């Protein structure tokens, strides 16, 4: 192990910022991070061992205790549930002889839940040693069980198991016509960089991650910072459950994205760029690096790009995440890039003035960079001609859930929900979760509403539920998700998201009494208004948006009397019964005294 | 003329680079806080010091004072939220004030009294947490840690060490110490370290000193936390 780690640290140039990459490699090799490895890494990277332990315990994909040689994680998104996650979990448990959350006694395989893997249009999905396995079926699980028992390495497994589909169904401005590698840069250099920024400004392009900050303004602010060390970061930590459009863009349109990043670098004067790729998209890593190599050969990256009059030197490095939704928040992402726990920073200062290693940094979504590249080629007018007054252009949606054709739909801003449902073949609709769990749940009486920053904003997640679905199941899945993903930095979110989870469980499991829904709503408001970052501020949205629309659903869960115990009385006696070795009638309690 | 901000209708002067908390403290205005300490870089995590700045919630300990700010601090709704946040800290850990040797000297307890907290309000988590009594002079009772990171910052910024760190995520966050064994006795901590004396609760204690000052004669037995805090922190700012 000693040599393995020495080589690894050398390969990473002794950079502490590469801690996640180092730990990913150790986890992949030893299926946990051994104590001796922590000690050695701390010495070689000159960082305290506590920083390494902190990072290991922060990210879901790192472990201090051994996992199986085959680490199997099943996606726990609501969309996976709707496609049979429970049945597949039971089948895996039986077939592989391992319980969810455990390591098999022979140490060969471990099995656990993981947050949404971004394969919502082809679930139920899983990850095996980090690689995406779409569309699980009993037949595939049989095949996997054989491969595992033969101890064949994952790299030698049949490729068909890993066949992730793009499912691009509706194309418009961004997806319809590909630009050639270098076309946006050529046009921008010819037109002038300042003029190109003006075109982007004129296009009205706003950030596609969901918050909607005007892209040209962000680039302008960053460029005004007096330093020659600006940074460009592409946020490909697409963790919002129900979203998968960035996976498709990076698989089929990576040149566009890199082109947009390079354009940004030219405009703001950056030499260094990062693509922060969520760990769940490991299957894209090698091919993306190959594209970067191609772009070097084409003179589109590296020194003196395209031999332009203005000297542009720019390089892009791909950094993989390790299972933490919070890293989609831009300042948490920057912390993660620096090799730390993904804890959102205090603002101000904003990343445009002090970002990666304190340098002025532009962080934009994958789709934003792609749109900027196309605007550089086609001009601002071309983009601004579509959309609404405040939301120009198009939005790429990841549509999943109850519809005939889940996949990628590029819709014009201002499109009504009804028109989108018609496009994807959704019938008997109960409601739609727009923007993922952190967004809004709308009911089937609101289908005239529109996709736009001024009405329903979304980073791309669009989950459809039909009338067979139970709203409380959906809300429960989302609320558990936030409690699991809270970084724990601030009190209201750290404690509040877990309190929300417990309070909702209490109501859903039928132990709520009068006043419990009011208490739930109060808690929601506290978490929403007092939390440090967007995660906490939106964690109560699933409850709040459904409570507003279906108050009777929550009330119906409550018991009729006010002195109902807030827990299962009889279940609480289980330990006592076991200790007393009794199971007679007198050792049981009814929840409420009859009469 | 000095630049000013308005806090609850009072005009408060500030110097360029000061946070709202620093300006308020210097002017004798108390903003409740636990993770803030004037000697260390601000952290902004406990959220007790949340104030409304021009209508928007901001942490007073990290947010810079800027000309023209209208700050609301001592308001009914903010204090109600502060009380609930304090209750969250109580139910998250295991805080039994009557049997804790820090009682009367504890900032968490004092701020709870100040905010008129009369019960836990939320259901307790009853988390299983350990006590590390391995060190000859110091003790960590993890039941009482509120993750304010003051020990982390004091060790790093003042003592020039890295004895403490916060690890884990969400509700599983926990304090860890920098030794191969994971025990306090194997770290380079000393009872003379600032970090050993900075804990606002009873999570880090100096051994053999517990009842030298009897209950009834302790810091917050005489004065409320707002006065104690202003008296000590104004001095700190002047340093």
Overall description:
The complex is a heterodimer of chains A (595) and B (239). With 595 residues, chain A is an alpha/beta fold. In chain A, the strands form 3 sheets. A 6-stranded mixed sheet of chain A has the order 6-12-11-15-13-14. Chain A has a 5-stranded mixed sheet with strand order 2-3-1-4-5, with helices on one face. In chain A, α13 crosses α16 (366-378). The model of chain A has no long low-confidence stretch (mean pLDDT 96). Chain B is α+β, with helices and mostly antiparallel strands. Chain B has 2 domains: 3-81 and 229-238, Roll (Ubiquitin-like (UB roll)), CATH 3.10.20.740; 97-221, Alpha-Beta Plaits (2-Layer Sandwich), CATH 3.30.70.20. In chain B, a hairpin with a 6-residue loop joins β8 and β9 (174-177). Chain B is globular and about 55 Å long.
Layout of strands and helices, then pairs:
The complex is a heterodimer of chains A (595) and B (239).
Chain A: H1 2-11, H2 19-30, H3 35-45, H4 49-58, E1 70-75, H5 78-82, H6 85-96, E2 102-103, E3 109-114, E4 126-128, E5 131-133, H7 138-149, E6 168-170, H8 173-176, H9 183-191, H10 193-203, H11 215-224, E7 230-236, H12 245-252, H13 254-268, E8 270-277, H14 285-297, E9 315-320, H15 330-337, E10 361-365, H16 366-378, H17 380-384, E11 394-401, E12 407-412, H18 417-424, E13 429-434, E14 440-443, E15 461-466, H19 471-485, H20 491-508, H21 516-530, H22 534-539, H23 541-549, H24 551-556, H25 569-572, H26 574-580
Helix pairs in contact in A: 1-3, 6-7, 9-10, 9-16, 10-11, 13-16, 19-20, 20-21
Chain B: E1 3-7, E2 10-14, H1 20-26, E3 50-53, E4 56-59, E5 70-72, H2 76-92, H3 107-114, E6 131-132, E7 138-141, H4 150-158, E8 164-167, E9 174-177, E10 204-206, H5 219-222, H6 225-238
Parallel strand pairs in B: 1-5
Antiparallel strand pairs in B: 1-2, 3-4, 3-5, 6-7, 7-10, 8-9
